[in-house]
Specification:
Tetracycline Repressor, domain 2, Tet_transcr_reg_TetR-rel_C_sf (chains A, B), mainly alpha, 72% helix, homodimer, TetR/AcrR family transcriptional regulator (chains A, B), transcription (chains A, B), TetR_C (chains A, B), DNA-binding, DNA-binding (chains A, B)
DNA sequence: GTCTATACGCCGATAGAC
DNA sequence: GTCTATCGGCGTATAGAC
């Protein structure tokens, strides 16, 4: 892993832990072991480095989630696998977290990767819900896009509830709750 | 409104807009029109002032939501009124937002009001779901606490999706989605 | 490519006068 | 109660040597 890579990886960690506003170049340098000069040689500044970190996180997330949602099993089973996927729940979602960052939302460049990921996710889930309706797993009256948004929102909101309580319990309950609402386990 | 009040109100606004990490005493002073000396006369420092602001926001939120959930109508109707309540969706939830703040979550004092609100909310929704089951509105097989967590999470996650897209649409879809899953509108 | 030096304003607070 | 002065450290770079 070269210096630019180490800078990006350290930035990814810090963005996840502390957000954009809470992450300073100095903290990135300390964590990565790089020097001031290296950082400003490889990147134009904090926004540029954050963008590189965001892109890597989003690309990785999309690949991981895509693999889960494209796996074996019924539509319902794949949604359950996705929602119950092993996570460090109290750390929150490294992408969703950025939506609470005022400087990210205010910058079209910094918000773009976040928007892309969630738009893709909702589309992917929409198709999966429609597939489940075709196979008779889900009620035919459901709107696939609305249902997909509710599933994605439950996950993101589950992180909020868990962090509020410093406990995984509300997250697990929310996931169980949405899965139960989707229909009885066959 | 006296000086202490103006300091608290300005802090509430800034915590909502920029979070705890992103809010500086200087910004609070500028917005409130108070001077340095006033602030440190009325409050011991930034955490103390933030705590006062949090408490006021949480108290107000609880009163508002309690009124909606205690209003007229069936359990389902009251949940719908709550979820569809007029909101400036893109601003996000002033309480949920704080869960993404590392310094808030790391401090038992600063996290306490957030935890209290969400614990209260889930309890209130749990009772309402149980009420709806008793009246035959909701499926008897649902776990009320899990369902309540899913409802609360959908709302919080709806904000995340909306801010990611800079659009209210995913929020509205998520709300419609969870309401549809709760059962057909009579 | 990486290092050190330098800059200048903001952060969060304390001190002491009025 | 409120004001101004002062403080050491951090945030976010730029400059120029090696």
């Amino acid at each position: 892993m070269d210096t630019a890579d180490r800078l990006i990886e350290s930035t990814r960690e810090l963005l996840w832990e502390r957000g954009y506003v809470g992450t300073s170049p100095k903290a990135i340098l300390q964590r990565s072991g790089a020097g001031q000069g290296s950082m400003y040689h490889h990147f134009t500044g904090k926004p540029d480095l954050a963008l590189a970190a965001e892109r890597r996180t989003v690309d990785e997330m999309r690949a991981t989630v895509d693999a889960l949602l494209s796996g074996p099993g019924t539509a319902r089973e794949r949604i359950a696998v996705y929602l119950r996927r092993e996570r460090d729940v109290l750390r929150g979602c490294p992408v969703g977290r950025l939506t609470m960052d005022p400087d990210v939302v205010a910058s079209p460049e910094l918000r773009a990767p976040v928007e892309e990921l969630f738009t893709w996710l909702r589309g992917r889930l929409t198709a999966l819900v429609a597939e489940g309706q075709a196979s008779g797993e889900f009620a035919p009256g459901l709107d696939p896009a609305d249902t997909a948004a509710a599933i994605a929102a439950t996950l993101q909101g589950g992180y909020v509830l868990a962090r509020a309580s410093d406990s995984v319990e509300p997250f697990d309950r929310a996931v169980s709750g949405i899965l139960a609402l989707l229909g009885p386990t066959p």
